[in-house]
Design goal:
Layout (H helix, E strand, L loop, with lengths): L1 H10 L6 E3 L3 E3 L18 H5 L6 E4 L4 E4 L2 E6 L6 E5 L13
């Protein structure tokens, strides 16, 4: 019974990320990511989902948005203009300050 309940996990196309030691994350997929740019191709979605903090995340238990890279955000009355305020001290992957 226990082995049968694990079958869906084994059949999944992307293995769950697991922590090995203090600073290593190992992840497996059945395809190679074309790039590590999450905006360039779908193949890089899962590797980057565990690497980069999203602008705004989703709280799955409360079914609402949660803070990520953005500290707070607002939407204009026309629903076309979104304004994001980021956390102080945030930096891009190259070390430059995010502004």
């Amino acid at each position: 019974m226990l082995l049968g309940s694990a079958a869906p996990l084994l059949a999944s196309s992307v293995a769950l990320a697991s922590s090995c030691g203090d600073q290593i994350v190992r992840m497996a997929a059945i395809w190679a990511a074309d790039t590590m740019n999450p905006f360039a191709t779908w193949s890089s979605f899962w590797p980057t989902a565990f690497t980069y903090d999203p602008l705004v995340g989703m709280d799955a238990q409360r079914h609402r948005d949660r803070r990520g890279f953005a500290k707070e955000w607002s939407v204009a009355h026309d629903n076309l203009t979104w304004t994001f305020k980021i956390w102080p001290g945030m930096r891009w992957s190259d070390g430059q300050p995010a502004t």
